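Re: beginner question about structure tokens

> Can someone show what the tokenized structure looks like for a real chain? I only ever see the sequence side.

Sure, here's an example I had lying around. Input first:
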Amino acid sequence: MTSPADRHDLGIWAYALGYFLCYAPYSALTKTIAEGRLPGMAGGISGFALLPVTTMTSMVGMFAFLTWMGWWKHAGRRPLPGARLLLGAAPSLPLPGRWTFLSGLCSAAIIGTTTLSYALSGVSIVFMMLLMRGGVLVIAPLVDALGRRRVRWFSWLALAMSLGALLVTLSVRASYALTAVAAADVLLYLAAYFVRLRFMSHIAKSDDPTARLRYFVEEQMVASPAIVLVLAAVAVLGGDGAIAGQVRSGFVGFWSSGAVLGGIAVGLLSQGTGIFGGLILLDRRENTFCVPVNRASSVLAGIVATYGLTLILGSRSVPAPELAGAGLILGAIAVLAVAPALKARRAVEAR
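And the corresponding structure tokens:
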């Protein structure tokens, strides 16, 4: 008979499979659109111009998913701010709490920076993935330590391997071609993940599945709408700046670019990664276990996407140092996945 713990283990790996199946086509299609290589496209599209349609699609996908699953009931119900003054009553609606609202803003930053990272020219999918995924692997045990969760020896070993992966990748002169926009993108991504993991660990990582679902729903209902509103504000209030101009073209001119269906697909796949990735991170176990499961799926998906683009479109192949860096990160993931399992088995055998 399958124990509750075993069923829980199977759940997180099922989420990891879903994450992988969404992430591989998401990253490949984003890169293809950015380079203007879809049939019917006259040229490439910048990452900022791609964001409006993908985030609007993600928002629609999020509302559809939560409605289909019947998960709105898990969100906390709170009075609508200002409703009592306007209506004489305060209707109770599903609304996020203070911390899930802030976590949703962090999730919005992660959505935007991830899509942007794969649309940047001159930087490979695997290189950006190593910087971002490797950085989150470094953050995970630090968040556990700050939350006074015990960080075991194999977590520190994996941390060292992750740092080694970054050093190996950055050892190639060409890999230093990181633009200011790409560097800012990575830093914002890592800062958002740090804050988000801190909130998750404090509020939702427990044995109570209801608390985890409440956190998931409330965070999801903030993330996509928040980034759509930010992009709209940039388009309207950004003036004559280059970034504001690209965002405006995404709202107005993208529909005649020949990549509308591709952009919608990117948005839906992006929402899929947000759903499966969030459910992985909200698992009750420590971040030093959940984050590597999450990162493993995305690293493998990025490598598959890059090789797919090489075979189908003739894009540049993955440089050996980047493959070596990816191998070290996968090794770190193996350490974190296998060592706890062996320890648990020895504990059972000792009883």
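Each token stands for a local structural state, so reading them left to right follows the chain. Strands lie at 77-79, 92-94.
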